[in-house]
Design brief:
Bound molecules: NADP nicotinamide-adenine-dinucleotide phosphate, magnesium ion
CATH architecture of the largest domain: 3-Layer(aba) Sandwich
Number of domains: 2
CATH class of the largest domain: Alpha Beta
Strand order of the largest sheet: 14-15-16-13-12-18-19
Largest sheet: 7 strands, mixed
CATH superfamily of the largest domain: Aldehyde Dehydrogenase, Chain A, domain 1
Number of strands: 21
Distance between the termini: 85 Å
Helix content: 25-40%
Length: 498
């Protein structure tokens, strides 16, 4: 009998009001059920908002350094439980154990970053335009934050949202992806153990259509932070527009790595293998396109295809495995559909692109990594996010053409260029229209203390990570203090006092 998990509302572990449940299964072994989770709806969100709103009254008064100390404690507990969390991630989400440790580590780093920010939650001080008057700003919390997260970074992304929101003095409701509810539960268990007051941290499981929508429509939620697909992001943006909520959207990508003729070819192959097939291509920053200058094209493709064919596919908890499964059956089918689309469009499939069921892999959603060459600008496999281990190679003549192809998509998350020419590297940094650019490194590997996000349809202009995420979760309060003892009129009393 599968273990039954609960929501966390107002400091208590509770079932969904409906008492209904849904299953989470292992992508590497679909017959295995990780657990049963509450299938919540609007009623549970109403309960969580009530608890979060009540808790906000006190939580916002806790000094920010003290809130930071609690997050530091969360970091300490995550360090202790890192291996346990990573192992669960291989089971529930399916990324390989090394990457699962990395995902967990990103959560730990985010906790310690927030701990530090608790001692530098600065506003600004400015002289006034009038005498005997000063102007200052404070950062204040917004209230209740509704946080909706995807399954592909099941620990890191919830921490990116929850920790800064909490440090800033908001109370939070997390609605995690339905594919990874056990991991969200594990994280919230750790947070409960760290000792947050009841109602400060709330967790509500359930389908995006019911639970997610209830968050968007609730009048007492002041800010929504969402990471996921552009399709759902558009819906969220429009509902939050109607209800005038602040909303931060981190959406899809169609990231590319450029390799110029002068690049270190082996370094570039190493980079694209990790960028394209790490996490089975299911990173928002995954390398989905490889743009090769014609002089290096054939040699690089030959090395790359050989390495892709040699990648070891298997159970993600096995230390020697390179490539785990994709998240679920419908995702696998969508990826395989794109392989068919690529073939029909006239691209050449050099390797992979089919389901792998040998040995231990028979009951999971495993795919052989695919490399397409002869991909032309404008083909669907060159334009659309596939979110799986499929790489499209485009051949170009010049640096300028490479940048034009890279920029010619609706997304703008991550990008990379391999070259030894420092002039071209700097021109690429300037000309590439993405939120993140790597020079001589793959398109993946963001660090938690730097801004993270993209241009164009990748989002709506916010940046998570680093110091910038705090802008999402705070209101600026501007204060003027007049110590002149008389009425002074800004813009009207313009003459300088003699
Ligand atoms: P998704 O299908 O958009 O789901 C994301 C979250 O939204 C899930 O919690 C989902 O709940 C919820 N949701 C679904 N419908 C909703 C609705 N109508 N109202 C409110 N919430 C709703 O995305 P995914 O498949 O989990 O993740 C993959 C996508 O995320 C990719 O497109 C990837 O590029 C993107 N991503 C972007 C970044 C970034 O920072 N830019 C990072 C990681 C991933 P259910 O699970 O219950 O459906
Ligand atoms: Mg599952």
């Amino acid at each position: 009998m599968a273990e039954r998990f609960k929501n966390y509302i107002g400091g208590k572990w509770v079932d969904a009001r409906s008492k209904e449940t849904f299953e989470s299964r292992m992508p590497a072994d679909w017959n295995n059920v990780v657990g049963l989770f509450p299938k919540s709806n609007k009623d549970d969100i109403d309960d969580a908002v009530k608890a979060a709103k009540e808790a906000f009254k006190e939580w916002k008064r806790v000094p920010v350094a003290k809130r930071g100390e609690l997050l530091g404690r969360v970091g300490d507990l995550m360090v202790k439980r890192k291996e346990e969390v990573a192992l669960l991630m291989t089971q529930e989400m399916g990324k390989v154990i090394k990457e699962a440790r990395g995902d967990t580590q990103e959560g730990i780093d985010t906790a310690y970053y927030a701990f530090g920010e608790g001692r530098r939650f600065f506003g600004k001080t400015s002289p006034s335009e009038l005498q005997n008057k000063v102007a200052i700003t404070f950062l204040r919390p917004i209230g209740v934050a509704g946080l909706i997260s995807p399954w592909n970074f099941p620990i890191a992304i919830p921490t990116w949202k929850m920790f800064p929101a909490l440090l800033a003095g908001n109370t939070v409701i997390l609605k995690p992806a339905s594919d990874t509810p056990a991991l969200a539960t594990k994280l919230v268990e750790i947070m409960a153990e760290a000792g947050f007051p009841a109602g400060v941290v709330n967790l509500v499981h359930g389908p995006g259509s019911a639970v997610g929508n209830a968050i968007l429509e609730h009048k007492d939620i002041g800010v929504v932070s969402f990471t996921g697909s552009s399709e759902v992001g558009r819906h969220i943006g429009s509902v939050c527009g109607k209800t005038l909520k602040r909303v931060s959207l981190e959406l899809g990508g169609k990231n590319a790595q450029i390799v110029l003729d002068d690049a270190d070819i082996d370094l570039a192959v190493e980079g694209v293998l990790f960028g394209a097939f790490g996490t089975a291509g299911q990173r928002c920053t995954a390398t989905s396109r490889l743009i090769l200058q014609e002089g290096i094209h054939d040699r690089l493709v030959e090395k790359l295809v050989k390495r892709a064919e040699d990648m070891k596919i298997g159970k993600p908890w096995d230390e020697s495995v390179d490539l785990g499964p994709v998240i679920n059956e419908s995702s696998m089918n969508k990826i395989l559909e794109y392989v068919e689309i690529g073939k029909k469009e006239g691209a050449k499939l050099m390797c992979g692109g089919y389901r792998y069921t040998e040995g231990a892999c028979k009951d999971g959603w495993f795919l052989k990594p695919a490399v397409f060459t002869e991909v032309k600008q404008g083909m669907r496999i060159e334009q659309e996010e596939i979110f799986g281990p499929v790489l499209s190679v485009v051949k170009v003549k010049t640096f300028e053409e490479a940048v034009e192809v890279l920029n010619g998509v609706e997304y703008g998350l991550s990008s990379s260029i391999y070259t030894k020419d420092v002039n071209l590297a700097f021109r690429a940094i300037e000309d590439i229209d993405t939120g993140i650019t790597y020079v001589n490194g793959p398109t993946i590997g963001a660090e938690c203390h730097m801004p993270f996000g993209g241009t164009k349809n990748t989002g709506n202009g916010h940046r998570e990570g680093g110091w910038t995420v705090y802008e999402i979760f705070t209101e600026q309060k501007t204060v003027y203090i007049d110590y002149s003892g008389k009425l002074q009129k800004a813009q009207i009393d313009v003459s300088i006092e003699k």
